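For the sake of transparency, this paper describes our internal protein records without simplification. Such a record has a labelled line for the sequence and another for the backbone structure tokens. Nothing more is needed to write down the fold, since each code stands for a local backbone conformation. For reference, a complete record is included directly beneath this paragraph.
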Amino acid sequence: MTSSEAFARDTQIVHLGRDPQANHGIVNPPVYHASTFIFNSVAQLLETRRDRASGAFEQFTYGREGTPTTRALEDAVTQLEGGYRAVVTSCGLGAICASLTAFLSAGDHLLIIDSLYGPVRQFCDEYLKRFGVEVSYYDPLIGADIAHLVQPNTRVIYLESPCSLTFEMTDVPAITRVARARGITTIMDNTWATPLCFQPLAHGADVSIHAATKYISGHSDLMLGIAVCNEAAFIPVKKTASASGYCGGPDDIYMALRGLRTLSLRLQRHQETATTIARWLQRRPEVSRVMYPALPDDPGHAIWRRDFNGASGLFGAVLKPCSEQQFAAMLDHMDLFLMGYSWGGFESLVVPTYPATLRSARPWQEKGPALRLHAGLEDPDDLIRDLERGFARLAAAA
């Protein structure tokens, strides 16, 4: 097959990470269920030990460190991201924790975005601080001014763009330029954009994180994480993930590979539907503002348009002040926008959000209740009618 770099991204998604000729003509890579690998000689066994000790991890030694199925997914996502190699973990949080702890030790300083995924904040505050890592949160709109927050012991800057729950756009290139000039490792959660809409490594990051649970799998039925690394970052992340036991299950890895094949088609539909619903919400009298950087009037639109190739189906909205009873009446009886703590699957979801409880560097000033919505693959008109009925319930509960 011609080098994958010669093909468009949609073609790469179909073909990367699989080799039918190496698997008896089977289209999809087989699922390898394995804990134990057998070696034919002491020399071979010692060679695998040397491979692991060096950090190359080219050879298969034990199921925790991967199988051919694991390698197929890692290779596919790595090439889509333009990385060196990737590490599959048990979930997105596992990929984040492995990446952070790979580069942080007691006495080090971590700069981390204020609007990050909640469980990561918990990990930083309850675990990293306990083990002697100093953690500082920065304003997601800080850009190159992050240089003023860098300390002599700053080892990692962690980013998201757009931000969890509030969808501010971070100037990733500006921050990574500061980090690179000072030898600081940068790690970015790229789950919202997927490798199709943004490539953090091409914008200066060292590690790009994906909760493959979400868009890469696309079917709300597995838990998986991926850390795509540049060459310098790979060995530390791989060794840390292996030593920490962050391994993905073979069936979940296979299902993520299968989901990856339709990512481009699904993501296009998610964006189209999200844009339609976001524009409709902007016209609703109950809505104070919509948070979706793909909208031309969004405060982060200029950065999104400069750096991103598209958007996903996840966005936010702030309602005008209403009572808790009204808010609950709207959400309790939705038919399509059901409540669930995830996104990226084929179905639409909604959850109430409370950004004020998760912010410190940039306080949340909105007065009304906030929502996070995921536009699934349902008909947009049906989804709009579902929201319309929800707003009617909100008004009736006044």
